[in-house]
From TrEMBL:
GO terms for cellular component: membrane. It comes from the Eukaryota. Homodimer; disulfide-linked. This is Glycoprotein-N-acetylgalactosamine 3-beta-galactosyltransferase 1. Its cofactor is Mn(2+). Glycosyltransferase that generates the core 1 O-glycan Gal-beta1-3GalNAc-alpha1-Ser/Thr (T antigen), which is a precursor for many extended O-glycans in glycoproteins. Residues 78-237 form the Fringe-like glycosyltransferase domain. The lineage of its organism: Eukaryota, Metazoa, Ecdysozoa, Arthropoda, Hexapoda. Signal peptide: none annotated. Belongs to the glycosyltransferase 31 family. Beta3-Gal-T subfamily.
């Protein structure tokens, strides 16, 4: 009887030891994978290392069609948009008067539309008619942008997730040059709810009292008039600190402190709300910038999605966290901790400079 009990105890100890070794090996491998991910920035954009990230989930819940106005001479700009931020749109449309030689870009050629700023309003109206006829079921929100606009789609989705696309509302960089009527800057881009597009097409455009029928005029100003006349509200897109999310200038122009590179006088006149200078210019959840050259499209792409400041902590004022990553580093002196519990909708990985022990928090 005693020998039988001793035998059972020995079996239990062996099995427990095997489980302990398996657990220790798994924990170590998870740490190794996490550190490697942080160092290289290589993350499966479909599932991530720890399951779908918040940006991936929102990509399905907040569907955005990106409507980019371009022209036959701007193929380089089109390609830079498609290679960078355009990849994150649920549906990406380039509209022009010609398809061009590179059919891989998928440019839509509008009928009876001329190029140039004097005809931009006509192109905008035709573009939204095309979306209405062909793509209204492909998205919930409809972002109009220029081919020199850079859009951070992850931040846009996060901003829009609390709004109802069936409400008549749109967002952008608020202009108010004559201090009477607000409208959204066309260069910074503006995003319309599905109901706003419906009212624009069915109620505004057919009525000359609601919407200008002439091809000329400032596109953004005319769009603002049309939407206002059919009860579409221009919402406030600033963050809780009053910092701007949609920017009608390039980031270098807003951030630079050089006296020889000042903010243009027209910009200050047009802005509906005051804007801070230098690093206080823009929200940390900024959505768009205008006047971005093709090379700088790739620079912004790298800085936003591929550059990680190592060892600066998790203070939002000190570091930026890539949306695709489900991991954020938080250092201790001797312990590496991995947790699968979400914190502020983000899964956490804590990496220490000196690793002596590994814990797994379920």
């Amino acid at each position: 009887m005693v020998r039988r009990l001793e035998h059972r105890f020995f079996v239990v100890v062996c099995i427990s030891f095997i489980f302990f070794l398996a657990f220790y090996w798994y924990s170590g491998m998870q740490t190794l994978v996490t550190v490697k991910t942080i160092e290289t920035g290589l993350v499966d954009t479909k599932f991530g290392d720890f399951g779908p990230s918040e940006s991936q989930i929102l990509g399905q819940k907040v569907r955005i069609l990106c409507l980019v106005l371009t022209g036959p001479k701007n193929i380089i700009k089109v390609r830079s948009v498609k290679d960078t931020w355009g990849r994150r749109c649920n549906k990406l449309l380039f509209v022009s008067s010609e398809v061009g030689n590179d059919t891989s870009l998928g440019i839509v050629a509008l009928q009876n539309v001329s190029e140039g700023r004097n005809f931009l309003w006509a192109k905008t109206k035709q573009s939204f008619r095309y979306v209405w006829d062909n793509h209204m079921n492909d998205a919930d929100w409809f972002m109009k942008a220029d081919d020199d606009t850079y859009v951070v789609l992850d931040n846009l989705r996060h901003f829009l997730k609390d709004y109802d696309t069936h409400q008549p509302i749109y967002f952008g960089c608020k202009f108010n040059p004559d201090k009477t009527k607000l409208y959204a800057s066309g260069g910074a881009g503006y995003v319309l709810s599905k109901e706003s597009v419906r009212r624009f097409i069915e109620e505004a455009l057919p009525n000359k009292k609601n919407c200008s029928a002439v091809p000329g005029g400032s596109e953004d100003l005319e769009m603002g008039k049309c939407l206002r006349n059919v009860g579409v509200e221009l919402g406030d897109s600033r963050d809780k600190l009053g910092k701007h999310r949609f920017m009608a200038l390039a980031p270098d122009r807003l951030v630079a402190r050089y006296p020889s590179y000042p903010i243009p006088a027209w910009y200050k006149k047009y802005m509906a709300y005051p804007q801070g200078e230098s690093l206080e210019c823009c929200s940390q959840s900024a959505i768009s910038f205008h006047y971005v050259t093709p090379p700088n499209m790739y620079v912004l792409e790298f800085l936003i999605y591929h550059l990680y400041p190592i060892g600066v902590g998790n203070d939002p004022g000190k570091s930026f966290i890539r949306p695709e990553l489900t991991a954020i580093s938080q250092a201790t002196t001797t312990t590496t901790t991995i947790t699968s519990k979400p914190l502020n909708s983000t899964k956490i990985v804590m990496i220490s400079p000196v690793i002596n022990t590994t814990k797994l928090v379920a």
